[in-house]
Prior knowledge:
The protein is largely without helices or strands.
Amino acid sequence: YEADDSTTGLLEDDDDDNDGVIDGSDAFPKNNTESSDRDNDGTGDNADAFPDDSERQYFSIDDALAQVVDDELRRCIENRVSGVEHAGLLKEVICNNPQSLEGIQAFNQLTDLRIGNANFANLGPLAALTELKYLRLAWGSGKINDLTALSGLKKLRTLHIEGQSVTNVGPLSGLGSLEELNLRYNEITDITPLSTLGNISS
């Protein structure tokens, strides 16, 4: 050991997943979408429909469908859950003409969600879908403006938001896994926040 080998002044990374919770207090230090597991069942509280019950993690299909308020969205989901044991096993939903996304959060293990003719503005329910890797919200009424609900979807690789009223893309600045981003036909005037997304190829 020499004097030149001193590590004095170097900072140790105490938040490996950069989720704002230090590793010592983070039940999932390598997963930036989870930090706590109140019932100690191995499923993070964000993904756990029953975070205080170690015997259950996901809603039954019937209970999850009962939370979906839009008839068209419910029908689209029903077409994909035949034989599926519980809501956590549904990975993909493709749907046209829904008027609301409310209730989609009950299916919080979705990795692929594609909505055409999106006739709604509120993206709030999407905040719970932290496993999403592909998201498309296209055309319809063009009312989508606020992207705040997407800011925590750290696993997103592909995002298409087309034909909407988006002006502020700031909420997307932390989505470092994004590889493909399509924001055509919006009202964006400043793309500076997107400069942090170094993995985008198209």
